[in-house]
Amino acid sequence: MAELSIIIIVVLLTVLLSVCWALWPAKPEPSVAAPDNPIIVFKNNILDYASASAQDRFPIAIGAHNWLDLHDILSPEYPDFPDRPPDNISQNQEITSNQNTHQTILISWLPDGATLSFFGEEDMLKDSPAIEELTTIQQVSDNLPYPAWKTNHHGNIVWQNESYTNMALRSVRAGCDAHAGIFDLQNMSPSKTTLRAQFECSVSQQNEWFEICRTPLSDGVLYSATSIDPLIRAEEAQRDFVQTLAKTFAHLSVGLAVFNRKRQLVLFNPALTDLTGLTVSFLSPRPTIDSFFDAMRENRRMPEPKNYKTWRQRMVDLIDEAENGRFEETWTLESGQTYNVKGRPHPDGAIAFLFEDISAEISLARNLRAELELGQNLVDTFEDALAVFSQSGLLTFSNKAYDVMWKFQTGTSFADVTIHDAIQLWKEQSEPNPLWQEIHDAVMSLADREMWSMPVCIKGQVPMQCKIVPIASGATVIRFSQQSASLRQKEPLLKKNSE
């Protein structure tokens, strides 16, 4: 029995060890790091780029060595290394070392240079896609329409593309200092990623604007520049247009306030400060439309609202009406001034408000109205009936005695009353008279205007005299006064009969 128990225990331990072994994680195999093969790039017979391993292995410096220098450096180990690039673009060329290092140089010829990649025999097949990718990247960088370059930690340029090289030939800065970049980046702090900079061209007097993009890398900084000349010209045109508008509106007596789509003040003229009582220091920081009208309310340059809730709702309605071009109000202020305020929509969601002081016009209109009322009350005291007709024959004025005599209701007459209408009224209420047409001709005549009179007799009443008097501006006064029957004849006609 004891032996059976021992066997069972041994079997269980064996099974347990097998399970643990199966579940125990396998030890990872050591990974083989990819070799850092040296790479050298030549452009226009000048060393344009060299990887860190290439600079460590060979005594070369970017921008300081040409093809012949590299031939002198590599020819002891690579006797077949060409002393100059071929005249025509040829296929990739492999050059093997004469030493027992199994090293090979793969030269990828380019239209304006070459890419040199150093490989061991075991790396040639494995790294051929990398060579193609490097060649593609080189071709892309050379054909970029904007300049790109790379600097090391000391700020020295270690790589540049074809566009940068071409611009450096025309740069004033690069012409003065071979180590200076074509852009002034002194104001670009490490925290900035973009900066606007000018390119000073030595060929033309017109500078170009670029936006510099900065990308930090582990071994330096990569820069790229994009031309923003059209954007700069558009901003300058907009700024000049705004300045022109400001100069144009500077001499206007009408206050102008333009708010953009964000409802911030973007344009105002000096007259606005006089009409609103707001200072330039308040208007210059571009206040919002709510702040603008709140300040006007505090300066008592708006009608005082009954309560603040009504005021806020009024501001909302004001903005809505201005957006639709329907806002126009006359504000009477506590100071006695009167403002005419208009709101009009502008392009791109902007709103313009126009403030005009019409106090003088309102005062003049009030005075004129008072004078007219005074004149009307004065002639209403006359016993004679008066009616004034314009040069075109329209009734422009009549007094109370005229309305009573001819039963004419001036206040209820909406249509224009002509001399023809008035003569018809007179004919209906008076005895027959052959001289009515003479009155019509005298009123409508432009020449031979003189004062004359004729007898008129209203039915059932005593005779009276009608006097026709020409006055200024081609108008004519018809005056009816009670006279004796002896004045019933027209004086000019009597003279004609006597002749």
Write the layout of secondary structure elements.
Layout: H1 2-23, E1 39-43, E2 46-50, H2 52-57, H3 67-74, E3 93-96, E4 103-110, E5 113-120, H4 128-142, E6 148-151, E7 157-160, H5 162-169, H6 172-176, E8 194-199, E9 208-217, E10 220-227, H7 229-249, E11 255-259, E12 265-268, H8 270-276, H9 280-283, H10 289-298, H11 308-323, E13 327-332, E14 338-345, E15 351-357, H12 359-380, E16 385-389, E17 395-398, H13 400-405, H14 419-429, H15 436-444, E18 452-456, E19 464-470, E20 476-482, H16 491-498
Antiparallel strand pairs: 1-2, 1-5, 3-4, 4-5, 6-7, 6-10, 8-9, 9-10, 11-12, 11-15, 13-14, 14-15, 16-17, 16-20, 18-19, 19-20
Helix pairs in contact: 14-15
Describe this structure in words.
The protein is of the alpha+beta class and 499 residues long. The protein has 4 domains: 39-142; 148-227; 242-361, 2-Layer Sandwich (Beta-Lactamase), CATH 3.30.450; 382-498, PAS domain (Beta-Lactamase), CATH 3.30.450. 36% of the residues lie in helices and 24% in strands. The protein is built from 16 helices and 20 strands. The chain has a 5-stranded antiparallel β-sheet with strand order 2-1-5-4-3. A 5-stranded antiparallel β-sheet has the order 7-6-10-9-8. The chain has a 5-stranded antiparallel β-sheet with strand order 12-11-15-14-13, sandwiched between helices. A hairpin with a 2-residue loop joins strand 4 and strand 5 (113-120). Helix 14 (419-429) packs antiparallel against helix 15. The termini are far apart. Mean pLDDT is 78; it is low at 4-35 and 484-499.
